[in-house]
Amino acid sequence: MDDDDDKKDMKPRGTGCGCQPAENESKTFVWHGDRSPLYDFPNNEINITEKWPRGFGQITQAGKMQAFQLGQFLRNRYFSLVGDRYHPDDIYMLTSDYDRTIVTALLVLSGLYPAKERWHSSIDWDPVPLRTIPHEIDNIIAFTAKCPKYEHQLDCYRYHGTGRMLDANYTKFYAYLSNHTGIPLHELNFEKVNDVFDTLYVQDVHKLGVPKWAKQHAYEGQEHYLMRKISEYTFSSLTYNEIAMNLRGGPVMREIMRNFEAHTQQQHSSHNRISKFKLRLYSGHDSTIATILQVFGVYNHQLVPYTGTVLIELYKRSYKTDEPSCPQIPDPFSDMYFIKFFYKNCTTQNLLYEIPLPDCRDITESSDINFRPSCSIKKLRQVMRSVLQGDWYQQCKYKSNCCGSCASFKKSGSDFSKFEYESSVSATMQWLRACL
User: Fold this and answer.
1) Residue 180 is inside which H or E element, if any?
2) Which of 17, 78, 199, 393 could form a disulfide with 37 if both were Cys (CB 3.0 to 4.6 A apart)?
3) Residue 422 DSSP label
4) Is the dihedral of CA 384, 253, 406, 285 positive or negative?
5) Could you list the pLDDT tens digit for every one of the 436 residues in the chain?
6) Closest by alpha carbon to 51, among 209, 212, 197?
7) CATH superfamily of domain region 22-145+242-398
8) Backbone angles phi, psi at 105, to 5 degrees
9) What Å distances lie between residue 152 and 121, 141, 156, 232, 389, CA to CA?
10) Domain boundaries along the sequence of the chain
11) Residue 390 DSSP code
12) CA distance 73 to 86
């Protein structure tokens, strides 16, 4: 049999029992590329303003290239979805209102859509529009919108829960850190340690070295060095209990479901632009990625690398009922639309992992290993019902004189060591390798 005959007999990738998946839409959440430090401390040996004259939290040259290369990666993955040329009905980019996320968004779009039509002989760039969310109303990406009840929950974590126990566990280390950084001891907590660690990490990435006093704590070993471990708690605290999870994760989860369900209902009228877009991109922060991973129950409690990316893809499963081999199901629409969840957790390599979602495996697995549907939209809504319900603005209301309880924690003090090493790690993510 020659190659052409062989190709004719081949089944399409992903077919199983006459059922062909067809990609409909994707939501992609991106952390920006390499940046300058966000924070300085009094005894820092590096002059940050001299090294990074553009100031704190600005995208670097390396970060620009990382964002552009991510755009190229997305172009390769979604070329069949959005095509070779930009069209306003194909793609939607939303970013938080920070310089570094806006620049990242512009460069991702530039990599996604290389210039095809030259509007100037010396400029090889075709601008693609994006949208930003003002800080005051951003409850999706940077989560800078005011939510008093969420702030109360964080205070509970800081001063009454695991955060307090964490700080109590490391009083000697905090004294050591205060002595070398110049930060007053009373100001040090696990969040401030995260700030220091982030600054040292950025300086190390830029080959500026690490001070000797930090090496024995921050850079000894790999996964378990002290400052990094404490830093990881900062991100774990974002959605540490059900209330915090619903308040922080609710808006972004509603955004995801609202658009996916618009597609499943085929609302492609001129009055509903929501469902038109084939690819929705969100340019945000490491906290954005951590929150999404936590909401979906797949956070592995490791720091997100630069340009770490979550891809949530919507598929339509087509049932060819005229084929005897295809099983008849009572309600073919109940699992016709489903999602797959992917995590790109490496800056320098295009490594993409498909992550199975806990409590959301209601579709019979195909015998084809290339076709592994994760979770139907119907089932996803059931699993996420507590996160999706209610009005966020009403939920955020909080009066300290009537409801000041801090009793709701995932783990009690007696479970601290277990929480630290085991219980908080999702079983589905134990195999996932962090790439920093």
Assistant:
1) helix 171-181
2) 199
3) I
4) positive
5) 444 443 333 332 233 333 444 456 788 999 999 999 999 999 999 999 999 999 999 999 999 999 999 999 999 999 988 888 999 989 999 999 999 999 999 999 999 999 887 788 788 888 999 999 999 999 999 999 999 999 999 999 998 888 888 899 889 889 999 999 999 999 999 999 999 999 999 999 999 988 888 887 665 543 347 888 888 889 989 999 999 999 999 999 999 999 888 877 764 444 555 567 899 999 999 999 999 999 999 998 889 999 999 999 988 876 554 555 444 443 444 567 889 999 999 888 888 999 988 878 654 444 444 445 568 888 899 999 999 998 999 999 987 643 456 654 443 333 333 333 233 323 223 323 233 3
6) 209
7) Phosphoglycerate mutase-like (3.40.50.1240)
8) -60, -45
9) 56, 20, 6, 21, 20
10) 22-145+242-398
11) S
12) 16
Looking up tokens 């995260």 gives 194
Q: How many residues does the chain have?
A: 436
Residue with tokens 């783990």: 411
Angle between helices 148-159 and 162-169 (to 10 degrees): 30
d(CA 240, CA 237): 5
Q: What is the pTM of this model?
A: 0.82
